[in-house]
Amino acid sequence: MLSNETPEGARWLLLIHQLPAKPAYARVKIWRRLKGLGAVTVKNSVYALPANAETREDFAWLVKEIAELGGEAFVCEAALVDGISDAEVQALFDAARDEDYAEISAAARELAGAGATQAERAAQAARLRKQLDEIVAIDFFGADGREPAEGLVSGLEAALQREETDMSAPSAPPAPAGLKGRVWVTRQGVQIDRIASAWLIRRFIDPEAHFKFVPGTGYAAEPGELRFDMFEGEFTHRGDRCTFEVLLADAKLDDPALTAIGEIIHDIDLKDGKYGREEAAGIRSLVAGIASSHNDDTQRLERGAVLLDDLYRSFAGKGSK
Question: Residue 35 in 3-state DSSP?
Answer without folding.
Answer: helix
